[in-house]
Design brief:
With about 60 residues, the chain is an all-alpha fold. It has helices at about 1-25, 30-60. Helices cover about 90% and strands about 0% of the residues.
Length: about 60
């Protein structure tokens, strides 16, 4: 059961990050918004990585 959960959780995390990025980009019109998006996207990617690492650690 543990081996089946890691790829599923990774897929969910990546899908959530991609969906959020697509949603944020669809409403952008200003250049300053693009800078904010890059900053927030970097934070989101790090947060997703931390979540995946934590879940994988918990499954060991």
């Amino acid at each position: 059961m543990k081996n089946n959960m890691a790829p599923i959780l990774t897929g969910v995390a990546v899908s959530a990050a991609v969906g959020t990025a697509a949603y944020m980009m669809s409403g952008m019109g200003k250049k300053s918004a693009a800078k904010n998006f890059k900053k927030n996207a970097g934070k989101a990617v790090r947060a997703v990585g931390d979540v995946v690492d934590t879940v994988s650690y918990m499954m060991k």
